[in-house]
Amino acid sequence: MVTLQFPTRRRLLAMVASVAVLLGATACGDDRSADRTGGDAPVTEADRRYGQAPAPHREVTYQPDVVIVGGGGRSVRSVTPDGLTWRIDPRAKRAAELARGRVMFITGRGVGRVIDVRRDGDDLAVTVGPVAITEVIRDGRFTSDRPVPFDRMVANPAGEPFWAEAEEGTSGAGGSGGGGGGPLPGRSKTARIPAGKFNVTPTCCATGIGLHFTYDSGGIRLVGTLELMFEKPSGTFDLVIDNGSVKKAMFEVTGGTGLRLDVEGGSALGAGHNINRRITIPVDFAVPLGTFLGVPFSATVNQSLTIQTAFSAKDGNIKANARYGFSGKLGFGYQNGSFDAWKPAGFQVQDSLTNSITGISVGVNGLLFAYQARLHVGIGAFGFSTGLYVGLTASVGVTMGSALGAPLTVCRGATLNLFTDYGVGYRLPTAVVKVINLFLRVFEAKPIEAEGGIGGTANVLNRNEVIPDVPLCRK
């Protein structure tokens, strides 16, 4: 946990407050975080499992429909793997005020617009959707006075949420999944995790943010590793909200050094048997930052991967690997209604993607991967995190021509596109929104939106190469 510095007088006050905690004098409404850059509230097992509790503060104003439920993580019984339904103690302070349309704020991870609330046995089951941070906070300034340690993340697995794997262009979904205890955070490297028919092993964050994946179904086999390389990534931020609007914002992440990938695939069946899947990795890597004006902020990292295959004949296969370097920082500044994006520069080819492509088939083979890593500072969990964010997406395509063209030439092609997205609020993948909204029909609830808040995107790099560079291959 990050411990942010108090001025001397306030540190003395915090020490007095800590003694009061030991003497059993705490209450849910205590003003435990008197400075504007973070505090030293004790972290309990419930905090680690479900997040720290929010608290009123004289320098922050919540929106009028926000319900701060008392007890924090101690009032949470369980959370479903999809992160949508929180089972809480109905006797918790202000729990009776929860109703459709209001915003539940029970912990730094448990915050969202109430879609449904009902008694279920001894629990109060509260289903929530995403909110922009300005739907929670009306006034306040939240700023860091020391680097945010993105290199100290621990894993928070979600289990097997139904939204983890979605077919692009469809809205099919399974059920919401059974109740879960909200697994305790693990180590910085996680074990293999199922996401639909994929198995993924995400990693984060001291040397990079990435994942290894495998897929073996319907005659198609895929295996690969994609990673955004970092060297002890860290960040700084500043956020000013006034009367429910973002007046000023800054989020900067340093330490990025490059991109590497190693992918291969094959098909036993060929044309008519391809896949187009989006995987939202059901793991958050997070580190709590303490309370800011009573608001428990965390730094989080989440990832997603889109995979599309294009095998045109039986027994086709293709393989490629590459490594690229870059320098500079990720982030943005926002003031006076406009954004200024900061993006990587100094792009260098260390191992060429195009030169690495190998494979053989009587037809044309192709693979397309779109990998995204997004870094957040704010509240919420998984794809529902809200606050400041910046992401980097690498879209990679490789193709290998038919071996029947070998007497002339076998064409190899590669594309690499990088772009960054940034803002204040939340952004959800369209495919994920579709499956969640299908599930929410059970509650006859208003569909959630794919994004809330303000933000933008900026292009970083576009490369398109063919080998050999002849008219036949450029068609």
Secondary-structure blueprint of this entry?
Layout: H1 8-22, H2 45-50, E1 61-62, E2 66-68, E3 76-79, E4 85-88, E5 103-105, E6 111-120, E7 123-129, E8 137-143, E9 154-157, E10 165-167, E11 193-195, E12 198-203, E13 208-217, E14 220-242, E15 245-267, E16 276-280, E17 283-292, E18 295-311, E19 316-327, E20 330-335, E21 338-342, E22 345-351, H3 353-356, E23 358-360, E24 365-379, E25 386-400, E26 412-427, H4 430-440, E27 451-467, H5 471-474
Structural class: mainly beta
- Unreliable runs, pLDDT <50, ≥5 residues? 1-37, 169-189
Helical content stands at under 10%
Give the C-alpha Rg. Answer: 24 Å
Instruction: Name the shape in a single word.
Output: globular
Tell me, rounded to a whole number, the average pLDDT: 83
Number of helices: 5
Termini gap: 55 Å
Task: Count the domains.
Answer: 2
Proportion in β-strands: over 45%
> What about the largest sheet?
12 strands, antiparallel
For the secondary structure, the number of strands is: 27
Biased composition (Basic and acidic residues): 45-55
Organism: Micromonospora sonneratiae
Protein name: Lipoprotein
Keywords: Signal
